[in-house]
Amino acid sequence: MHDEFTKIEWLKKRFEKGTVPSREVIVGIGDDAAVIDFGSRPTIVTVDTHVEDVHFRRELISCRELGRRAVIAAASDVWAMASTPSGALVALTFPDAFTDPDFRELIEGIAEASELTGARIIGGNLSRGRSLSITTTVFGLPAEEAVTRDGARPGDRIYVTGELGAAALGLAILEAGASDLEHAESFVSRWRRPPVHGQIVRELAQSATAAVDISDGCLQDLQHVCVASSVGAVIEASDIPMARGHRENCAALGFDPFELALTGGEDYELLFTAPPDAEVQIPATPIGTIIEGSEVRVLDSEGQPIEFGQTGYRHFS
Amino acid sequence: MHDEFTKIEWLKKRFEKGTVPSREVIVGIGDDAAVIDFGSRPTIVTVDTHVEDVHFRRELISCRELGRRAVIAAASDVWAMASTPSGALVALTFPDAFTDPDFRELIEGIAEASELTGARIIGGNLSRGRSLSITTTVFGLPAEEAVTRDGARPGDRIYVTGELGAAALGLAILEAGASDLEHAESFVSRWRRPPVHGQIVRELAQSATAAVDISDGCLQDLQHVCVASSVGAVIEASDIPMARGHRENCAALGFDPFELALTGGEDYELLFTAPPDAEVQIPATPIGTIIEGSEVRVLDSEGQPIEFGQTGYRHFS
Questions:
Q1: pLDDT (0 to 100) of residue A310
Q2: Residue B210 lies in a domain
Q3: CB contact under 8 A, A146 and B46
Q4: H or E stretch including A260?
Q5: Domain range holding B197?
Q6: Which has the higher per-residue pLDDT, B25 or A262?
Q7: Given CB atoms, is B229 within the 8 Å cutoff of chain A?
Q8: For the domain that residue B278 is a member of, what is the CATH number?
Q9: pLDDT tens track for B78-106
Q10: Confidence (pTM)
Q11: A150 lies in a domain?
Q12: Contact A139 B45 (CB under 8 A)
């Protein structure tokens, strides 16, 4: 399967078999471009790149999980717009040493993510290069109106889905070789297998005034919402949802549990704001309030501000 | 401008200024995803990657030309569907040594291509990595119905726009350091600055039964059409359009002029088929005929078959 065209033929067959509905796809893999019918609704489009030794190290994740993760991370931006992924293009760059079994596993992971997100793989590109790299373009359709970052208003409550810092802790556990820690596997899995948010898209469209996915770290992504909305925010540290074992494992590895929860990247949970009187039907935790101004503050249980050395996520290299 | 968010802010401003109409863009650069309104027509989507030391060497092309070229090469797939580019997402991966002036020049080239193709830059992604890499997703709208690869029928005439092998010859001149050859600059420019086909899209939609862009080399791309259409083809070598100086420069560098014209990649000209009675209004050269079967043959002026050692384009590494 070393020939590019052999690979494309295999991919064409592989993704024809998918159970994701194809009614919108007029021309799929194998022509110059795909042709899709989005209907008459506005369409969501986003692109995300995962590069070896920047976003992942090969020895820390299997090819299957890598493929799955790359597509879900890209789909995460579509969910954060209160929209449903419908199609994806995957551009792969791989080194000569990347084997056929590696390639097949990567594609199986992509196929798994395609099923989980509902984004049908409609095209892509194959290229050689020095490092493995996956660039995913995802299209989607808003459940109602797309929720952007600029709608947060003073008084809105700030919510997050899931638990924060778990992915960063999982990665730290892998890097430290600390798999004997309690709940280690659960944290590692949070990093390797980001969450799927398809179920809450409609509720998000109904409740949220602004939304963002947490890829750079909660504080930094909240900052993006605040800048776009021209508002400030106050976070109550004691309200931050943290996974079982988070504090203990942070202590074992020398992290501040709040700092890791608020600045650790790649959770791919969603952060959104909603008016104080909104009935939020989404399983999510309120962690603070939007205020006037431009400052983003974190308060401890005494109401005193906490300062962190780092507000966002840093990549490997 | 070393910070990612500073770059994104700069990009947001840079691409707001564009003269490409924005009525379809509801949310542009700076949110989780872009929101565009394609109307109720089917939409064309394609993705293309250009990787350093695979598709280009930095010392052979300026950053501005590189940016321009990456977007035009991706748009070429949209034109080959008889469609008009309307938007693009650009995912850039660059090494730490990539300077701010390099970055700005790359973006100016992308902006130039955006103007030339009509594809408004509506989003993208920035990432670090070991090699420079540009992945461009282009959207477009068919002029009428999208022209695919599978519509060629026995009896159809085969046409190509422009002149073949000129880009490959330009690259060979650069690699040989043979800039003293006559017309050298014109060939080099064919490689660095691929052609823009926006003007012929409507005529293509009206005349063509199948179309493809010539990126892998004329013979190989024709082969793709033949496989998709379940037909064969006969090419008359003496009808192949070759640029002024092509034969002389091929002789000087040790290439067979026909082989280079038919197998040299990256011309980004269009190959299309049209019924024998079609009035083709496109400036293009008829080079052969679609036949029954599956074989693609090249005949010399005596009607004898010519065999080439290589049917397609090979990348650098």
A1: 57
A2: yes
A3: no
A4: helix A257-263
A5: 157-306
A6: A262
A7: no
A8: 3.90.650.10
A9: 999 999 999 999 999 999 999 999 999 99
A10: 0.92
A11: no
A12: yes
